[in-house]
Amino acid sequence: MNRLILSISAAAILAGCSSTTKKADPMEEQKKDPANTAPATNDTTPKVTGIGGIFFFSDNPKETREWYKKNLGIDANDYGATFESRNIDRPEEINALQWTPFKKGSGYFAPSKKEFMINYRVQNMEALVKQLKENGVTVLDDIASYEYGKFVHIMDSEGNKLELWEPADSTDDKAGK
User: Fold this and answer.
1) How far is CA 114 from the centre of its chain?
2) Which of 2, 38, 74, 88 has the most neighbouring CB atoms within 10 Å?
3) 151: domain range?
4) pLDDT tens track for 126-177
């Protein structure tokens, strides 16, 4: 009797798994919704467009990098590891995410007391900083420009220091260069 119940239960489970009724994929449904279509490439709305980096404290960054390489295959140098991906809406655009362990106590995260910092990729940095200041957000420094982009640091409402980065190529693209 127990075998019969077990067999019926197993058959019911397998029948449910091999159902021919296709369930809707929420991601596909979102893509079909006209309200969720990709913005035009000339969109200059000041906003976050992705994650640019994940930074965290480590007691020993060298050992941490070695552990991640050995166990998770993350090949990092002294500056961390860079993960590249393509923008699904603009496949010609390659985005980078920087992953870096920092020596515990590094002043780079100050004035935050947290053990991590997130770098957000943004567009239209100047307008975004202006908007943040108007909203009363603490902007910690002036926009700094480098060959690889513009940076500024802010504090969120929880006391987390955030790094905002506008890649140089996106700045050039928006300016029509």
Assistant:
1) 18
2) 74
3) 46-174
4) 999 999 999 999 999 999 999 999 999 999 999 999 999 999 976 444 444 3
